[in-house]
Amino acid sequence: MTGDSSGFIELPTGTPSWWAEVYSDNALLTQTASTGAGTARQDLPTSSSSQPSVMAVMLDRLNISAAAPPDTATGHQGCRVLEIGTGTGYNTALLAHRLGDANVVSVDIDPALVEAARARLAGLGLHPALRAGDGALGWQAGPGWV
């Protein structure tokens, strides 16, 4: 990710360019994987952070509330969310802050991303359930997930 033919540019944490990108309203590539060797080497995107304004619209359209009435099937109070694609954990943090840790489960196919997000979230005092796995398989914890 250092200016090769892929067009990706690595921005070391804490540099002025890094802060400008982090606070921009742009989607950010957060992880790549290298394939090939020598002149055939390519960095392929494997994870990104969605554009913040897009995340805000998606969260707004969920119309979620920690004070939602009890679910008639389960009796569970408030909304619960199953997020597919933990990534950096940014959106997971927003959900956990709004709904509480017990009401958020986030699944990502990449175990390394899950563990990195778990550490970041713990640093914020947030401890939602994070799982490495295929989000297409859903979550087996029971009904009532948005």
Question: If you had to describe this structure to a student in words, what would you say it looks like?
Answer:
With 146 residues, the protein is α/β, with parallel strands linked by helices. The protein is 28% helix and 20% strand. It contains four helices and five strands. It has helices at residues 16-22, 52-62, 90-99, 111-123, and strands spanning 28-35, 42-49, 81-84, 104-108, 129-132. It has a three-stranded parallel beta sheet, with helices on one face. Strands 1-2 form a two-stranded antiparallel ribbon. The chain starts with 15 loop residues before the first helix and ends in a 14-residue tail after the last strand.
Question: What characteristics describe this protein?
Answer:
about 150 residues; alpha/beta; two-stranded antiparallel ribbon; about 20% strand; globular
Please give the number of β-strands.
5
Percentage of residues in DSSP E strands: 15-25%
Strand order in space, largest sheet: 3-4-5
Calculate the mean pLDDT score and round it. 83
Can you give me a brief rundown of this structure?
This protein is of the alpha/beta class. The chain has helices spanning 16-22, 52-62, 90-99, 111-123, and strands at 28-35, 42-49, 81-84, 104-108, 129-132. The model has no long low-confidence stretch (mean pLDDT 83).
